[in-house]
Amino acid sequence: MDLKTIKEEARKKFNNFCRVCVVCDGRACAGEVPGMGGTGTGESFKQNVRALSDIRLNLRVVHDVLEPDTSINLFGINLLTPIMGAPITNASLNCGGGLTEFELVSSLVKGCHDAGSLGWIGDPAIPSMFTDGLEAIKLATRGVAIIKPRVDQGEIIRRFEDAIQAGAIAVGIDIDGAGLVTMKLKGQAVGPKNISKIRELVNSVSVPFVVKGIMTPDEAVACFDAGANAIVVSNHGGRVLDFTPGVAEVLPKIIKAVGKDAIVLADGGVRSGVDALKLIALGAKGVLVGRPLITGAFGAMSEGVKFIIEKYTQELYAAMILTGCKSIKDIDSRIIFEK
């Protein structure tokens, strides 16, 4: 198996919903939502990729780092890599239907698990698709479930309970989905959550709680004050609000506000292991990958997802040697070139 073959097979199944570009940067699919693109002009999606691309690294080779350790412990689970699969849903609406929902989500979660990583599932407006995600977690024996910020708190909590029963090691909400019209059209209105509502959700579960979709320091602090165990810095892949900054741009300010010990993950524009290294150097404890893993799934199911995660991890490993980092904890801002 190789990346070229995976991409060729994926291109056949995408029905032009994704062009499988040489660089997945949002230019070819701008405005294609539903679809794989970014909302409006696509600038939020494109800026995620650009912001990472603009970061330069210090090459360091006078040291004794021969075999760096890429492993992390997250939510009490030992992972071989800090590179995980982002929550992804709706194979038919967004990806052209070349795979069924269960084929897509099970490939994502199983592929991540087989690579020693962790797959996350999402929560679309169609209940059966969430059920598919739960079944994928059961098969992989672990995962993280992220629920839409429904106005009805009880609906969220019921989904938490189902996810934990299925084997989710952590749950949370993707609060950046607060303006999704598709949810409202399906009779499942979503909206923002204040501190008290987040705290209610945190207190409803006994597993780690994650708030995904944070892009400002003040809201990051607010989430941790409400009891969240982790946050994910994310603009929903550029799919909800046009003209946001890139994740790599806001991450350092968020880390400064919440402290280096806080569990802050980053999701936005990761296209290589070097991109993962950059986000970790900016303060993230781990990263989530979205669109490239969809290509992996469409190209070779779980084996394709496993291939991408392992490829990125190998790139991270090599980059750690060339920047003098013995472990993930050793990766910090000293490897970033300051102009």
Automatic annotation (TrEMBL):
Q: Where does FMN bind?
A: K212, S234, H236, D267, G268, G269, V270, R271, G290, R291
Residue ranges spanning the membrane: these are none
Q: Which residues bind glyoxylate?
A: R239
Limits of the FMN hydroxy acid dehydrogenase domain: 37-339
Q: Which cofactor does it need?
A: FMN
Enzyme Commission code: 1.1.3.15
Which PROSITE patterns does the UniProt record give? FMN_HYDROXY_ACID_DH_2
- Which terms are listed as keywords in the entry? Flavoprotein, FMN, Oxidoreductase
Query: Domain of life, per the record?
Result: Bacteria
Checking InterPro entries in the record gives:
Aldolase_TIM (IPR013785), Alpha-hydoxy_acid_DH_FMN (IPR012133), FMN-dep_DH (IPR000262), FMN_HAD (IPR037396)
Q: Family, per the entry?
A: Belongs to the FMN-dependent alpha-hydroxy acid dehydrogenase family.
Q: Which PANTHER family match?
A: 2-HYDROXYACID OXIDASE 1, S -2-HYDROXY-ACID OXIDASE-RELATED
* Protein name stated in the entry: (S)-2-hydroxy-acid oxidase
Q: What is the lineage of its organism?
A: Bacteria, Pseudomonadati, Thermodesulfobiota, Thermodesulfobiia, Thermodesulfobiales
